[in-house]
Structures are given as C-alpha cells and as structure tokens.
Amino acid sequence: MAARRHTSVLVYRPTDADVFAARVRAPRGRVTLHTAATADEAKAVIGEIDVVWAWKFPTLLYANAARLAWLETMGAGVDWALAPELPARVTVTRAAGVFGPWMAEYTLGWCLFVTQRMAFYRDAQRAREWRGDVMPDRLSGTTMVIVGLGEIGRTIAGAARRLGLRVVGVSRSGRRTPGVSRVYRPSHLHRALAEGDFVVLVTPLTAETRGLIGERELAAMKSSAWLVNIGRGPLVDEAALVNALGARRIGGAVLDVFAVEPLPPVHPLWTFDNVVVTPHIAGPDVPEELAAAFNANLARYIAGRPLRHVVDRRRGY
Ligand code: GLV
C-alpha cells in the first residue's frame, strides 16, 4: 500500500483524551489530531477522520464515519468496538503487549491476598489482636486454571509458574503452551475447572464466551477455589455467582469486571466477605504504554505498511 500524505486522527476517551493525544508521535505535518470526550464532540469531526484511537468510542457514530479506515482500541478487549454497524473496510487493532505484566501482578497479588490471609491479619490488627493461632497457606504448589491463553493469559501463566504454581489452561485450540501443564479445549471446561485452586478468566467476550461461567461451571469448581475475573463481566452469570457465594459453594471471588460498570451500589456482590471488588483496574491505562503501541502502528499506517495486532472481526478478538 502507498504511503499516506496526510492522516486525520481522533483520540477519543470519556476522560483525559488530551493526555493521550499529547503522546501521539508522527512526522511533522503528516497528522492532524482531534480529541473528543463525548459523543457530541466526536460527532462534530468524525466525518473527516481517517483513524480513531479510542476507549469506548460511541458505536452509533460509525454511521457518520465516512472516511474511517482504522480503529485502534486503548485496551485489549475489543467487544465494545465490534458493533455490526462498523463498516467492513475498517481495520480494527487492539493494544497489545501492554497489559500482561500488570494483570499478572494483579492476579498473583490477589492470590497471595487469599493464601496470606491478608484481610484476616489486617482485621486482627485493627482489633489489636495477636492471632498467632491462624497460619497462612503456601501459594506455591496450588493449581491455577487460566481460561484464555492469549498474550495476557500466557504472561500470567509464566508469572504463576515462577512462583511455583501448577498452571492448567483452557483455550479454543487446546494447543500445548510452554509453562502450562495441560491445556483443555472449551468442551472440557468442567474438567479444567475441577483442578483449580484459582480459576482466572482472561478470555475475550464473544458470542461463545458470554455466560461461560454459570451455575454448572461454579458447581464444577472445588468448594475452596477462588474465581478471579479480569476478562469481562458478562463471562460470568452474576446471579449464579451470587448464589454460589451465598451457599459457600466456592471459596470466593476476586472481580475486576462486571456486567454493569460501575457496579451499582445496591449490587449484592459488594456485601460478601469473601469477594474482592476492584474497579476495572487490573490492566490500567498508562498513557505512555498505550501510546507506544499506537505510535508503532501509526508509523506503519503512514508508511502504508500492514498494521499489527489486527482483530479478526468474525472471531471477535
Ligand atoms: C480493558 O478492559 C481492556 O480491554 O484492555
């Protein structure tokens, strides 16, 4: 493809679009940058935009995006971007190589929160109680089941192995993966779940994975196992999860993502002592990190070279 002489880029985020726009790097005069924080602001310019770099871009505006050729998401998950109205000519890419190390630390940090009984000792401290009768557990030697062995899942697997965990995976292909003792296909999900002391969900949200973890899957887990959801809320049937937690059918849950975000104040998931709620921060949006990924692709786009980390729109990731 020929090099492009001029490109109009829209940086869209509901907050702090300017901070991200300030990190865009392109040869002088080759790019015009626009920023928008609301659908109205985006609507005013979208008709003249070639490239959108965005988090949660209002997909209703695809209808007005007459020139749009490329959309890069400021995130690993592209579920929100893949609306049917997105014209077929638009290439979608996702931020790659950014979130794995963060999400590995998040996952192992919260696994250690469980095994080191951090909540218990902090409560005891608040009550000025010396509870030497309660011991922590070893994380090493436990089994982590990772559902989704993409780049992020594999990074978590590597970090877990280095801490001495045994790692079992579930992936669409079932292909052997370095550092993962056993990889199951989705048709054997229940067998995989039964092995886990920790079950980590890091698979994309697609038509196939929506509601992946429901009553039967929770029943397949060990009664001591913890569920860690860092993928997308709708991977889990939240009503079934609330029931399983209430009945102590699983050990607990660490949840970073929810069907509705922010999690509504009345939601029962706030109330359990064996649930950790974090506000979708397992893979934080660090402007320098996301911009490095975008700028590398922007240089390719301007040079007319193929983009990297292109999403297969039919597959949904
Ligand atoms: C965040 O949820 C992401 O998709 O990266």
Output the radius of gyration. 21 Å
- Characterize the biggest β-sheet: 7 strands, parallel
Q: How much strand content do the residues show?
A: 15-25%
Look at the structure and give the CATH class of the largest domain.
Alpha Beta
CATH architecture descriptor text of the largest domain: 3-Layer(aba) Sandwich
Mean pLDDT across all residues, rounded? 97
**Spatial shape:** elongated
Which spans of ≥5 residues are poorly predicted at pLDDT below 50? none
- Fourth CATH level, the homologous superfamily of the largest domain: NAD(P)-binding Rossmann-like Domain
Tell me the strand order in the biggest sheet: 8-7-6-9-10-11-12
Alpha-beta content class: alpha/beta
Q: Give the count of structural domains.
A: 2
Number of helices: 9
Please count the beta strands (DSSP E, at least 2 residues each): 12
Helix content: 25-40%
Q: Any ligands, ions or cofactors bound here, and which?
A: glyoxylic acid
Question: What do you see in this structure?
Answer:
With 317 residues, the chain is an alpha/beta fold. The protein folds into two domains: 7-97 and 286-303, NAD(P)-binding Rossmann-like Domain (Rossmann fold, 3-Layer(aba) Sandwich), CATH 3.40.50; 100-277, NAD(P)-binding Rossmann-like Domain (Rossmann fold, 3-Layer(aba) Sandwich). It is built from nine helices and twelve strands. A seven-stranded parallel β-sheet has the order 8-7-6-9-10-11-12, with helices on both faces. Helix 7 (215-220) links the parallel strand 9 and strand 10. The model has no long low-confidence stretch (mean pLDDT 97). The structure holds glyoxylic acid. Glyoxylic acid binds at residues 75-77, 99, 283.
